[in-house]
Amino acid sequence: MRTRRTLLEWLARVTTVGFVFSCAAMCSVGRASAGDDSPDHLVIRGSKNLLPFVESWAEAYSLTPGASTFDLEGVGTSQGIEDLLDGRAQIAMASRAMSGEERSEAQKKGIKIRETVVARMGIAVIVNVEAPFESLTKASLTEIFTGRAINWEAVGGPDRPITVIRKTSGWSPDFFRERIMNGEEFSGNAVAVDSKEEVVVQVADQPWSIGFTGMPEAIPALDQVKLVKIVTDDSGEDATYALSRPLYLYTREDSTIPNPFLEYVLGSEAQAMIVDTGFYPAIQDDALSQQADRD
Fold first, then answer.
1. How far is CA 208 from CA 107, 137, 211, in A?
2. Which of 68, 169, 173, 181 is deepest in the core (most CB within 10 A)?
3. Furthest-apart CA atoms within the chain: distance in Å
4. How far apart are CA 95 and CA 65, in angstroms?
5. Residue 67 has what DSSP assignment?
6. How many other C-beta atoms lie within 10 A of the C-beta of residue 40?
């Protein structure tokens, strides 16, 4: 069993190095083909969520002797996987696992896919920085976000009405419903906003509100919002956070060209770069995801 470390432990243990990615210095212009499987050039397409730290990894890796050059573009997970299957990319960045339809398409084309978890995005439950809450149970969060609890008094807080803020669509609401709310629907009285950033803005402006967002969006606003610890049977008193989502790099098993880069990104140097951005290292365990895997 892997040792679970909290986010704060990683922050305390790791010193990150900032990198400024220069596309002019590293990226080839245009959409280069990956069909020739060139050993000195990697074409990477996919999720914009992964792009910032994949850029940093690519820049750092390019400084090693004999390293590849890179052509990176954030085109979305679905397009990145399509580019991989069609031979236009050697690596696909994905903020979700490949779908059954995508795996069927790969099988039809005779392509075996290698899936590599390279990071995890923390999911942050947040309240206003002035709110007197440090933690909430998974059951309490379900009561709040379904609308069954409309006053903080119902979950052990003061007699104040609860304002729920949530993002209208995307992977984060679905993921939160699956892992926290057992698939139940959000309250019809929740304030719906269009982005994870707007969730932070709304919670910062409303003292008795609560919302969830990506940890990368929450961390820069910790002077205005507070992270609420999700208490589960497995999380323990010292668990800073209990929920995170894996992020992937997909490659074709018949190509060994990306392997040295994949080995690099899973190493301690590359993993250290992402910690202060709100992402967890690939080896980070979390209580809720562990429970979901067991179920």
1. 50, 18, 10
2. 68
3. 65
4. 30
5. P
6. 9
Task: Give the pairing type, strands 91-94 and 41-46.
Answer: parallel
Tokens at 289, concatenated:
């995801």
pTM, rounded to two decimals:
0.70
Distance CA 128, CA 136 (A): 14
pLDDT above 60 for 44:
yes
How far, in whole angstroms, is CA 119 from its chain's centroid? 7
pLDDT band for position 197 (50/70/90)?
Answer: very high
Classify burial at 69, counting beta carbons within 10 Å of its beta carbon; exposed 0-12, middle 13-18, buried 19 or more: middle
Q: Give, as one character, the DSSP assignment of residue 139.
A: H
* 10: nearest Cα among 238, 263, 289: 238
**Whole-angstrom Cα distance, residue 39 to residue 42?**
8
For residue 78, what are its two tokens? 């679905």
How far apart (Å, rounded) are the C-alpha atoms in residues 254 and 87? 12
Rounded to 5 degrees, φ, ψ at 224 are -120, -25
For residues 60-70, give the mean pLDDT: 87
